[in-house]
Amino acid sequence: MLRATRIRWPVWKNWQIRWFVRRYGVDMSEACATSQLAYPDFNAFFTRALKPELRPICEGLDCVACPADGTLSQAATVCDGSLLQVKGIHYSLATLLGGDDALAERSQKWADLEYVRILYLAATTMQCEVEAVLSVLLEAGEVPEYEAVKAKVRPAEPGACPEVHVQAPDLSVYDALLAHTGVEA
User: Fold this and answer.
1) How far is it, in rounded angstroms, from Cα 94 to Cα 4?
2) What is the pTM (predicted TM-score) of this model?
């Protein structure tokens, strides 16, 4: 899937982007580059920069910002070693940390904060990279703390909004074709 999202062949990447925009109702006016054609591949579109004024991030120690551009449907704290995670199902912290009870016990104190910080990291970089780093840390018996995960994940640098200049198409070849076939333009 990773390769398919990085194909730069215009026919393929434009089809992917158009389909996604239609399927999920993406409002392109919120993006820095509003033209679907401005993105070199689907991944660039998927990780597009949004206009900063549309998603202000709260500041201060007493506020929480959600790292995803979506709807937060549930939130909970780790209580008695479990967390309400998805569709009302409770998961043990040990399960979320790869089945390691000792790791879960050491993680109990920081679990809420670290979990949210790692989710933010996954949303601002590539989720698959964060998942791979978490697996490596868990296999090594290390606590997957945010700083350790962040150090191993290639952070995405937010770029400036690209300037897009769309040139007027040269339709002279098309006009010549029409004239050759006898159809009026």
Assistant:
1) 34
2) 0.41
